[in-house]
Design a protein that fits this description.
This protein is an alpha/beta fold and 374 residues long. It has two domains: 237 residues, Crotonobetainyl-coa:carnitine coa-transferase, domain 1 (Rossmann fold, 3-Layer(aba) Sandwich); 79 residues, formyl-coa transferase, domain 3. Helices cover 37% and strands 14% of the residues. It contains 14 helices and eleven strands. The strands form three sheets. Strands 3-2-1-4-5-6 form a six-stranded parallel β-sheet, with helices on both faces. It has a three-stranded antiparallel β-sheet with strand order 7-8-9, covered by helices on one side. A hairpin with a 2-residue loop joins strand 10 and strand 11. The protein is elongated. The protein starts with 7 loop residues before the first strand and ends with a helix.
């Protein structure tokens, strides 16, 4: 069992970063109990980010269900919720109500815009949150429109990962102080934080606002993707001089113009020449020449291809559960290994057993049933 064994987390069902954060906590050993809406379904084996938790189905419009959640909170270490600001308070399940029951409780709140600010109540998705931070503007080809980087930067990078770090940090502090607190995790804040290095580059005059013009955004010929003879792609990242020299050697480029590696004015012309060279061989042929070398090279693999690459197979980066190929738990621990605790649960699949673990008697459960709360 993972390093978070014994940690009890109550998750309120949602989408995107909240479930992903709770998947990470579960993979690392936490006992995650999700509060689902009574009458919901769930349980799809394709819902990978919902793996590894138990489900309690409640009617949160029923006062008895609200009282049940507050009782559960008294025995939990952390709460994870992703509603718009004010929703949990209107339900009677806001931080004040829950911390009154459990002063050591860590209350994680996942939103796009944050709990405060002029946009706090506005709807949005990953693309909107990263647009506001400068991240979206920076991604794409020169002279073309910004390109959404899937929903990796806002939902998962700037959202879920910061939520996990924040909750775990607050839990460590609570063990010292005996006091819980609210973790206000906004995807705008997290995505902005991810840009720290680039704000430093910009202040130092090393970064231009025009996308596709910089070393790490595809502007440089030595840091980009290139099409191969068979219509596939390879990724080149030969930044350091010794790696760059090896790139030129292995690609057969002897043009003296390539000596001007860091001359931005030469990048477009050098990119054309390198592109022409890469186009002369298939991806497999370039793999044989460059993969595993200090060129800083990798084939650009599709989601279908990635699990079958020899490196990913050797590390078991992907696993198959219930016939579904999916990422294995990360990171890896030398002594307390993470594991997938189970598939995505059906809504309410564990209502009675989970409530019992939180101190509800058989009579308590029967009463909740009779009142229509579960």
């Amino acid at each position: 069992m993972g390093p978070l064994k014994g940690l009890k987390v109550i998750e309120f069902a949602g989408i995107g970063p909240g479930p992903f954060a709770c998947m990470l906590l579960s993979d690392m050993g936490a006992d995650v109990v999700r509060i689902d809406r009574k009458g919901a379904r769930g349980g799809s084996k394709f819902d990978i980010t919902s793996r590894g938790r138990r489900s309690v189905a409640l009617d949160l419009k029923n006062p008895k269900a609200i009282a049940a959640v507050l009782k559960m909170a008294a025995g939990a270490d952390a709460i994870i919720e992703g509603f718009r600001p004010g929703v949990m308070e209107r339900l009677g399940l806001g931080p004040d109500a829950m911390l009154a029951r459990n002063p050591k409780l860590v209350y994680g709140r996942m939103t796009g815009w944050g709990q405060t600010g002029p946009l706090a109540q506005a709807a949005g998705h990953d693309i909107n949150y990263i647009a506001l931070t400068g991240a979206l503007h920076a991604i794409g080809r020169k002279g073309e429109k910004p390109v959404p980087p899937l929903n990796l930067v806002g939902d998962f990078g700037g959202g879920a990962l910061y939520l996990v770090v924040g909750v775990l940090a607050a839990l460590i502090e609570a063990r010292q102080s005996g006091k819980g607190q609210v973790v206000d995790c906004a995807m705008t804040d997290g995505a902005a934080s991810l840009l720290a290095m680039f704000f430093g580059f910009k202040a130092a005059g090393m970064w231009e606002d025009q996308r596709g013009s910089n070393m790490l955004d595809g502007g440089a010929h030595f840091y980009d993707t290139y099409e191969t003879k068979d219509g596939k792609y390879v990724a080149i990242g030969s930044i350091e001089p010794q790696f760059y020299a090896l790139l030129l050697e292995k690609s057969g480029l002897s043009d003296p113009g390539f000596s001007a590696q860091m001359d931005r004015a030469q990048w477009p012309a050098l990119k054309e020449k390198l592109a022409a060279a890469i186009k002369t061989k298939t991806r497999d042929e370039w793999d044989a020449i460059m993969e595993g070398s200090d060129v800083c090279y990798a084939p650009v693999l599709s989601l279908s291809e990635a699990p079958h690459h020899r490196h990913n197979e050797a590390r078991q980066t992907y696993v198959t559960r219930d016939g579904i190929v999916q990422p294995a738990p990360a990171p890896r621990f030398s002594r307390t290994a993470s594991t997938i605790q189970g598939p995505a649960p059906m809504a309410g699949e564990h209502t009675e057993s989970a409530l019992a673990d939180f101190g509800f008697s058989a009579a308590d459960v029967a009463e909740l049933k009779s009142e229509g709360a579960i």
